[in-house]
Amino acid sequence: MDVTLRCRAYPDEETASEAWRHIEIHRQIRNHAIRDYYSHDDGNRPTAYDQHRKLTDWKQRWPLFSEVSAHAAQQTVSEIHKNVETQKGRRKNGHKTGRLKWQGSGERRSVAYQSEGFDVNHTTGQDGYATLRLSKIGYIPIRAHRELPATENIKRVVLKKERTGDWFVCLVTERPDEDLPEKPDPSTLDPVDCVGVDLGILSYIHTSDDTAVDMLDLSDDYDRYGREQRKLDRKEHGSNNWEKQRQTVAAAKRQIKRKVLDYQHKLTTWLVREYDLVAVEDLDVKSMLETSQNAKTKQDAAWSRFLDLLEYKADLHGTHVVRVEPAGTTKECSECGVETSKPLWIREHSCPACGHTEDRDLNAAKNILSRGHEQIGAGRSESTPVQTALSTGTNSVPAKRVVEAGSPEA
Ligand SMILES: [Zn+2]
């Protein structure tokens, strides 16, 4: 599996401006490859291989294209073919997708080097710093909080300029599967080590052992973001002050993104460390957005990234993550299986068939766990002594506590 290490990058002014010029050229290469791709009829469109060969001609016609690393240019071309594949996958799942879009000036913010054209020198500079060399761009000091991988172990390097003006580098290494911890045999799983997670409405998550983790409170951050955005709207577009303010707005937005990501890191780490099996709903984010009254909150939660992170960490920790069919998890009774529909505002599950009563999200989390057990072949989970012992009221855990129980890995 691929493991990504993100580091701050500190290019000097000259290197930064050269890197930005390269990114602009890559944007043009990408746009050109997209135009070429769609100029052929469906069924007759060029493959990545075809377009890599065409690059040679393009470079002759537009010498600018030869000013960037040839390997990086190939990456840029390959990227659109990956995008096309992703779109095909989404269409298979019933999504509507349009054509790939052109990138406007300033929209492209990164350049990627795959396998070649870079190295990392660990011996230069201060502690925690190293120097990244990118072919045709130059030398860039980078800084990481963890040990940097050796050049020969790095598969891919991505240099990115954030809208705030800060530069980052992602170093992607491959961790061989045999180095990953083995996941326990499903038939030997102890019920205490298995958990169902309901991605809730009122709390961020609600687990089958009745832990509710609070939603991250971002209201102050949103207030600040809104305030700075309004200031920006009052400035003359394109002026120096406007540009300054635009960076302030970008910084406020990035602060929100960072907080959410940090929170998700801590939650997912906690789950994979605490349990051997984590069952979650395979949520379609889009349909949630459409049905929710509170789209902004849902977006903050960024469920799909949460699930991706969870699966990524589960592989690193030897934990099973099972995505289960979400339909009906809130309707079904976790005790007897009878379905009763209830509107969103009814927070309690009360079963007309067996009389079982409990919190709506807890009931759903238990159903999710049962489905996870079934799916992985561990049989339907029985109500365990642990579950019974805990089901005497919700332990609403402040986010901070869970976060502290998590790891410093985030
Ligand atoms: Zn029931």
TrEMBL record:
Pfam families cross-referenced by the UniProt entry: Cas12f1-like_TNB (PF07282), OrfB_IS605 (PF01385)
Domain Cas12f1-like TNB: 303-368
Keyword DNA-binding: yes
Lineage, broadest ranks: Archaea, Methanobacteriati, Methanobacteriota, Stenosarchaea group, Halobacteria
Biased composition (Basic residues): 89-99
Gene Ontology BP terms: DNA recombination; transposition
Domain of life: Archaea
Residue span, Probable transposase IS891/IS1136/IS1341 domain: 186-290
UniProt source species: Halobellus clavatus
Record key words, sorted: DNA recombination, DNA-binding, Transposition
Stretch list, region Disordered: 85-106, 373-410
Family to which the UniProt record says this protein belongs: In the C-terminal section; belongs to the transposase 35 family.
Single annotated GO MF: DNA binding
Name recorded for this polypeptide: Putative transposase
Comp. bias regions, Polar residues: 381-397
